[in-house]
Amino acid sequence: MDFFGSFALLLAFLCAAYAFVGGIAAILTRHPLLVKSARQAGIATCGLIFLATASLVYLFFSDSYWVSYVVAHSNRDLSTFYKVAALWSGQEGSLLFWSFLLAVYVFSVLLVYRNKNGELMPYVGVVLAGVQIFFLTLNNFVASPFKVLAAPGANGALDIFTRADGNGLNPLLQYPEMVIHPPNLYSGYTGFTIPFAFALGALLARYPGEKWIHLTRKWTMIAWCFQTMGILLGAHWAYAVLGWGGYWGWDPVENASLLPWLTGTAFLHSVMMQEKRGMMKVWNVWLVFTTFMLCILGTLLTRSGVVSSVHAFAQSSIGNYFVGFLLLVFAVCLAAYVKNRDYLKSENQLDSMISRESSFLFNNLILLVSCIAVLSGTLFPVFSEWFSGSRISVGAPFFNKVNIPIGLLLLFLTGVGPLLAWRKTSTDSLKRNFGGPLIAGLLAGIVVFALGVREFFSLVCLMLCVFVTTTIGMEFFRGARVIRSRSGASLLASAVELTMRNTRRYGGYIVHMGMVLIFVGLAGAAFNRDVQKDMQPGSTLQIGGYKLLLQGFDTKPEKNYTSERMIVEVWRDNKPLMMLYPERRFFQTNEQSGTMVAIYSTLREDLYVVYAGQNPETQAPVIHAYLNPLVKWIWLGGLVVVLGTLVTLLPNRRAVLVLAVAPERTAAQQPQTLAPSVALREGHD
Amino acid sequence: MRKQAKFGIGIGIIVVSLGFLAWLGYGESKTYYHTIAELQTLHGTARAHRLRVGGTVEPGTIKRLSGRVDFVLAGEGKLLPVSYVGSEPLPDTFVDKSQALVEGSLADNGSFVAEHVQAKCASKYEAAPGGDAKPGAAKASTM
C-alpha cells in the first residue's frame, strides 16, 4: 500500500505538470482538444491525490508499522477515531492533507465549470495546477509520507523491517476537537486558493472584473467559513485541553491562522464596492493575492518552525521551499498586475465621508492595519534579527494594545455600515436609523456601569454590542413588517421569508450578529479570576460564588492511557450543585501525560477546574480553578456565524424587487431613495 | 480635493494612534532571545532586558525547593543555572533532558530568574499538530 500511495503521488505530480504545461499551450494555441486534455489532466491529478490519501489512511488502519510516518504517529491501541486524525498530526501527513483538500476544491471547480466560462477556465486551471505542483513536489520529493523503515541487512542491501507497535499519537492531539479543527483550518487555507486562481486568471485573461468576483463569491464564503470555524475550534481546543484558562495566546501559529482571515474578511466586504460601484478593483485583486500568500505563509509558519525557532523548538528545512514559493507567487502576481493594470481602472470615486463606500473603506483599512500589526508582531523576531542582529519577540500586550481598539472600531462599523446608503447618506436618515440604537447602546452602558463594570474596553464593547444588535434587529423588523403587511403572516415567518428573499444581505446580518456574540464573550475576559491551592481530600477552595470540595481520587486504566481523576463536588449558595472530574492522563506508549480540564459552563460564566499536578514541596495535589465570565458566548457566536454563512450561500427564494445596482440618482433629486424603505433597498447588500 | 484631504486626515489619525499603541505595547512586552553562550557576553543595559533562553535540562539538576525550582540548562557546551519562581506548576513535559525555554531576567550573580518555563520532551516526537497552536509544548505560562 505504501508503494501504491507513493506511485499515485508521483503520477499526480506528472499529471499536474501536464495540466500546467498543456494549459499554457492551450491558452496560446486556443486548440479545443488541448484545453480539454489540460482540464482532464487536472481532474486526474485530483483523483490520484485522493488515492494516495486513501492509501495512507489504510496504512494507519491496518497498523502498518513499517511505514515511518505510521510508526511515528500511531499505535495499536489508538482508537479508530484518532487514527484518522493521525493523518495530519505530523509534517508529511499534513502536507499530503493540504494537497488532498486542495484537490477536493480543484476537482469541484474543474467539474462545475467544465462547460462554462470558456475564456477564463484555462487560465484558472493553469494557476491551480501551478499551486498543486508546488505541494506535490513537497509530497513526492521533500516530505514523503510513505517512507519505510529500512536497515542494512546481512548481505549489505537495505531491508524493510517492521516494528511491533508505533510510538503513538501526541496526547495533546487525542481530543475530539483535534479531529475536526485541523481539517477546518486547512480547508480555509486551501480554499482561498480558488478565489486567488480566479483573480489571477481573470487578470491574465483580462476577464471582466464583476464576473470573476461573482463566480468566486461562494467559494470565498466557503473558505472563509472554514477558516472561521478552524480558528474558533482551535481556540476551544486550547481552552479545553491546554489547561491554562485562556483561549487565545497570540502564539505564532494562532496568529498565522488569523492573518488570512483578516484579509479574507476585508475582501468579502470590499468586493461589494466593485460589484455595485466599479471601484476598488486594484485593491480587490491585491487583497485576494495577499490572502492567498498569507495562507501559504500560515502553512509555512505552522510547518517550518521559522518563528518557533525563537522558542528553540523543532526546525525544518521545508521553510526554504515555502519562502521560494511565496516569492515566486509574489513575482507572478506583480508581473500580471504590471502587465494588465490598465485593466483595473476604477469607474467611480468616493462621494462622501458618510456613505456605504467609506464605511467599507474604513473597514478594509482597519482590518488591514490589524493584519499588518499581527504579521509584524509575529515575524518580529525574524526581522529584528535581520536588522539589528538580536532576536526580539513581542508578547500579548503588543497584540492586545493594537487589536482591542481595532476590534471595537470594527464592531462599531458592523452596526453603522449596512445602514448607510451608497454614495451619500442624509442627516435625516442618519437620525432615523441610528437614533434608537444609539439610545439603546447608551442605556446598556448605564446599566452595565451600574452593575459594577468599570473596565473601559469591556464597557465600550458591551455598549457597542447592544448598539449593533439593535441596528440589526431594526433591519429585520422593518423588512418583516412590510412583508407581514402584504402577506399577513406572523412577524417571525415574515422575517424568515425576508431572509430567504435576500439571503446575502440578511445572512450577512446573521453573521454580524454572531460576531456581536463573540465580542460579548471577549469582553468577559477582562474579569477572569483564578485561584490555585494545595488540596487534600476534604479540603475546600472558594472561587466567586462557588465552593469546591475535594472528595478524593480514582484511577482508571483505559485502553491507551491511565486516567487519574479528582472527584470534586461543586457547591453554590450552600447547596451542592454538581460533580466535576478534572483529570490527568498518563499515556503508556510515549510516557507523556495530559490534562483534561473539567468545565462547568453557563451563559454567565465558566467554572474551569484543572488538576494542575503536585506541589513540589509538599507533594500535595494542586487544583487550579478559574472563573471566566461569558466565554460560552464566543462558541455560541461561532455557531451563529456558521449559520449566517450557510444562509448567504442559499439562492434567493424570489427575484428581488430592485436590480442589484445602486441608484445612480443623486441625493438632491431623489431624497426618498435614501430612506430605509425596504422596497427600494431589498436589492442591496 | 477637499474630500480626499478629509479621508486622508481620518485615515492618518487612525494609523498614527494605532501606531502609537503598537509602540507602547512593544515597549511593554519586548523580550530578547539569546543562547546561553551569548548570555555570558552581555554587558550593561542588555543585561537588564527581559530575556528568553532555550536549552536542555541537565539530567539530575532539578531541585524542588521551597518557593522555587532550581535546575541547570545546557546549550552549546555552556551551562546556565536557573531558578524558576513562577506561580504555575511546571509542565508535565519538564523533566531531565527535555528542551526548555525560560523567560525572565538575569540575576547579578549570573544565574537566571525565570518567571515562565515551557518545555518539550526530547522524545520520539517531532510532531507538530497540523495548524495548531502549541506544538507539543505544554504551557506553564498564560502568556
Which terms would index this structure?
heterodimer; A: 685 residues; alpha+beta; 4 domains; six-stranded antiparallel sheet; four-stranded antiparallel sheet; 20 helices; 13 strands; 60% helix; 12% strand; disordered C terminus; B: 143 residues; OB fold (Dihydrolipoamide Acetyltransferase, E2P); five-stranded mixed barrel; 2 helices; 32% strand; elongated
Protein described:
- The complex is a heterodimer of chains A (685) and B (143).
- By secondary structure, chain A is α+β, with helices and mostly antiparallel strands.
- Chain A folds into 4 domains: 1-169, no CATH class; 180-379; 399-522 and 639-658 and 672-681, no CATH class; 527-631.
- In chain A, 60% of the residues lie in helices and 12% in strands.
- Chain A is built from 20 helices and 13 strands.
- In chain A, the strands form 3 sheets. In chain A, strands 5, 6, 7, 8, 9 and 10 form a 6-stranded antiparallel β-sheet that branches.
- In chain A, helix 8 runs antiparallel to helix 9.
- The longest helix of chain A is centred in the N-terminal third of the chain and has 33 residues, at 209-241.
- The two termini of chain A are 51 Å apart.
- Chain B is an alpha+beta fold and 143 residues long.
- Chain B folds into 2 domains: 1-30; 32-120, Nucleic acid-binding proteins (OB fold (Dihydrolipoamide Acetyltransferase, E2P), Beta Barrel).
- Chain B is 22% helix and 32% strand.
- Chain B has 2 helices and 7 strands.
- Chain B has helices at residues 2-29, 36-39; strands at 31-34, 51-57, 63-65, 68-75, 78-84, 99-106, 112-120.
- Chain B has a 5-stranded mixed barrel.
- In chain B, strand 1, helix 2 and strand 2 form a beta-alpha-beta unit.
- The relative contact order of chain B is 0.14.
- The model of chain B is unreliable at 122-143 (pLDDT under 50).
- The chains are: A alpha+beta (685), B alpha+beta (143).
- At the A-B interface, helix 5, helix 7, helix 9, helix 10 and helix 11 of A face helix 1, strand 1 and strand 2 of B.
